[in-house]
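Listing S7. Sequence submitted for prediction.
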Amino acid sequence: MRANYRMQRLFVGDALAAGVAFEASKDHFHYLANVLRMAEGDAVLLFNGRDGEWHATLSFPTRKRLVLTPVEQTRPQPVPSDLHYLFAPLKVGRLDYIVQKAVEMGAGVLQPVLTQHVQGKITSLERLQANAVEAAEQCGILAIPQVTAPRKLEELLAEWPRERRIIFCDEGHGSQNPLPALQAIEERRLALLVGPEGGFSDEERALLRNLDFVTPIPLGPRILRADTAAVAAMAVIQAAIGDWR
């Protein structure tokens, strides 16, 4: 069932079931009542990442309280995406962008990775989660990806489950065409690794290339910024292998 992009969509933490009303948070009250000027009986779409999407109505028991009542489910909860997106943190504005685009492209896990040449840093996992929620609200996505704490690259690789193949965007790859390497992948459980602005170090690239659960790929003849590379890589992987569900 297609998403309804004409109605306001909100992510909530409450359970969603027909007729089970709950009070809106202060932020949602302010946004719906003061910013959007919505009134008694108006409707929104709600989702919580667990119970699907619901058509809900608004009621105001008092001037400072808003109650949301789910009426009917408009879309069931889909199977969550299985793609793990591993990325070196970027500077704040571009980090926000890359998280939003990863959510739009269907990433199920967002894993910051600390590399030798990393230039950005993760100051707040809550900010990453908020960006993920905002992207989901705007794009009709019902599953919110898991945001995990930053890990050093070497530590992450040492504990990596071998049944999940890592696709490594290798700026030093000898080819310009990623399709042969992607089409040879048999695993359906995948992760995408994109490095920092300064690229991976020689030691990191050698480590990755020597692991049998890692597939290096190029992204064409041009030098791409890290945020551009992430979107390009997810698009070409999905086109070559199919959706990651």
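Caption to Listing S7: primary sequence and predicted structure tokens for the chain studied. Residues 9-75 form a domain with the Ribosomal Protein L25; Chain P fold (CATH 2.40.240.20). The radius of gyration is 21 Å.
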